[in-house]
Amino acid sequence: MKFDLLIRNGSVLDGTGTEAVRADVGIIGERIEAVGDLSKAKAKQTIDATGQFVCPGFIDVHSHSDAYLLIEPRASSKVFQGITTEVCGNCGASVAPRLGEAKLPSDWQDKPFPGIWRTVSEYRKLFEQTNPAVNEALLIGHNTLHRGICGYEPRGATPDELKKMCRALEQALDEGGCGMSTGLIYPPASAVPREEVVELSKVCAAKNKIYTSHMRSEGKQLLEAIDEALDIGRRSGARVQVSHLKTSGQANWHKVDAALEKIESAIAEGLEVAADRYPYTAAQTDLDIILPDWALYDGKDAVLGRLRDSNVRKKIRDEVLEGRGEFGFSTVMIGSVENPALQQFKGMKVDEAARALSMDPVDALLYIIEKDELRTGGIFFGMCEENMWKILAQPWVMIGCDASLRAPDGILSKDHPHPRAYGSFTKLLRASLDGQTVTLPEMIRKMTSLAAEQFRLKERGVLKKGNFADVAVFDPVKVKENTTYKEPHQLSEGVTTLVVNGTLTIKDGQLTGNRCGHFLD
Fold first, then answer.
1. Would 447 be classed as within a structural domain?
2. pLDDT tens per residue, range 150-199
3. Do residues 298 and 413 both lie within one domain?
4. 3-state SS string over 243-293?
5. How far apart are CA 97 and CA 90, in angstroms?
6. By C-alpha distance, which of 382, 400, 161, 432 is closest to 281?
7. What does the DSSP assignment read for 358-419?
8. CATH code: domain of residue 37
9. Is the peptide bond before 97 cis (omega within 30 degrees of 0)?
């Protein structure tokens, strides 16, 4: 037998959690043809993996790359971590369907896309034409649906609107969506009743699709938010994924055991529930999330109008000051900014920016949010390192970067992302190899088969005959993250070979220029 590609002499971790074995991996076309002793086999191309680990390509279960895959198909921040599949459309915001007057998220709006789409089917065609380096599974964002049918007002859907949302979700799932995500901390979903989410999740359950939840709270109301996510799963019958499980704010760190116990109990009763996490103690989202909920309703123009009304701005200012409480402003870093006049503040803490502006921190915060017209990113430090490692060690917790792809050059190199975009998977490989967290076979299982099973990614996540040939090879001595909060645009190193659907995407630690990502349904 002659293989198209043969990876020889590696220590194979097949993704199931079993210990590594010395073996070869033979690939024909897009599939794995054999795993074992292939020393006598011939191949068109051979990779010598001596001294390295060979495993399934990693699955990033919490990504926001949907739009960016169309404009940066190399996906370099992800592939150099060993990622071969991204689950996109998380936190209630997806690239499709684009209904009514709903707008794309602000960081996508000004980008030069290769075409126009409204439906999942139309987006999928653009994806296939662009030919990204990674596979994509697409969740359908609840906020995307809600805004398209109900608008931006802080309210639940009427019965008729809910029927339209269910039909739109059903169509999006039939066109390839893998489930529905919510961002219940973001308007207008923050004002939506639970019943709306239950009814939509029933649509997912009927099609054996997943429900993923950025919950209403990850701090003060964390335990109540977990109860809501589990209740939605019980009442709808849908599988549940708790997004980026964390305990935000020192006053809430003690809740970690109770949070884990709630999920463990649900699993014990038979509910299909799991979670994901990234290995950093700072979160990232839009900087304006720090504003009170009422100030964020009704869309961008309404929010800016409130900030520009001196009386309303004072009320916002007072509530922001009250709401920061123990956090203050030294725990908030300014991330990406769009306004050229504000570029100097990227990577600064808000209190540093305030000194540069000769303002109180709260006034500097509101000034930057207004002048950047709600396009500013924020990095929020408020998690416990010990809790992070405890959560990551749970057997039902998989890995997600919670980030869009980036690149150190080109159109996606000019902002200031969280380092998780470049380093989540390699940081955890390094931590596992150094004995800081679970064993390497278990960490690989979290990154591969656990994720594939939860999201029903067929014939992926395990190295075995017949599965798609998504394969990562990494050097255990060299693998590491290089990214930092101050200098985020730095590729990981140590992934020497990456194969996506049988196509050699990274060879000898360098991009080959060949791409073969699939849209997964």
1. no
2. 999 999 999 999 999 999 999 999 999 999 999 999 999 999 999 999 99
3. no
4. CCCCCCCHHHHHHHHHHHHHHHHHHHCCCCEEEEECCCCEEEEEHHHHCCH
5. 14
6. 382
7. TS-HHHHHHHHHHHTTT--EEEEE---HHHHHHHHTSTTEEE---B----SSSGGGSS---T
8. 2.30.40.10
9. yes
Helix H or strand E segment including 43 = strand 42-48
- What is the C-alpha to C-alpha distance for residues 244 and 242, in angstroms, rounded to an integer? 7
- pTM comes to 0.95
Q: Which DSSP letter does residue 421 get?
A: H
The residue segments making up the domain with residue 506 are 2-56+464-477+491-510
**Does 320 reside within a domain?**
yes
In a domain, 520, yes or no: no
Q: Can you tell me the distance from the alpha carbon of 495 to that of 498, in angstroms, rounded to the nearest whole number?
A: 7
Report the C-alpha gap between 378 and 498 in whole angstroms.
32
- Asked if residue 30 lies in contact with residue 135, where contact means CB atoms within 8 angstroms, the answer is no
Residues 298 and 223 reside in one and the same domain: no
Q: Report the C-alpha dihedral over residues 42, 44, 50, 53, rounded to 10 degrees.
A: -110
Which pair of structure tokens corresponds to residue 399? 């890995």
Q: What are phi and psi of 468, to 5 degrees?
A: -65, 145
Specify the length of the chain in residues.
521
Give strand pairing partners of 12.
21, 54
Asked whether residue 198 falls in the same domain as residue 267, the answer is yes
Residue at 226: amino acid letter:
I
Radius of gyration for the chain, computed over Cα atoms and rounded to the nearest angstrom: 22
| Domain identity same for 297 and 313 | yes
The whole-angstrom distance between residue 360's C-alpha and the CA centroid of its chain comes to 34
Closest CA to 502 of 456, 471, 472: 471
Question: Would you tell me how many other CB atoms lie within 10 Å of the CB of residue 135?
Answer: 23
Is the pLDDT at 129 greater than 90, yes or no? yes
* Of 327, 422, 430, residue with least CA distance to 381: 327
The CATH number assigned to the domain holding 193 equals 3.20.20.140
Roughly what angle, to the nearest 10 degrees, separates helices 310-324 and 361-371?
Answer: 120
- Among 183, 184, 195, 187, residue whose Cα is nearest residue 158: 195
What pLDDT score was predicted for residue 237? 98
Q: Over 60: is that where the pLDDT of 142 sits?
A: yes
The verdict on 318 and 225 lying in the same domain is no
- Domain count for the chain: 3
Both 473 and 506 in a single domain?
Answer: yes
User: Do residues 183 and 241 share a domain?
Assistant: yes
Q: Smallest Cα–Cα separation from 4: which of 23, 24, 31?
A: 31
Give whole-number Cα distances, 498 to 284, 426, 471, 474, 516, in Å: 28, 14, 6, 9, 11
The verdict on residue 443 lying in a domain is no
Whether residue 376 sits in one domain with residue 229: no
Last residue of a domain, one of 358, 380, 402: 380
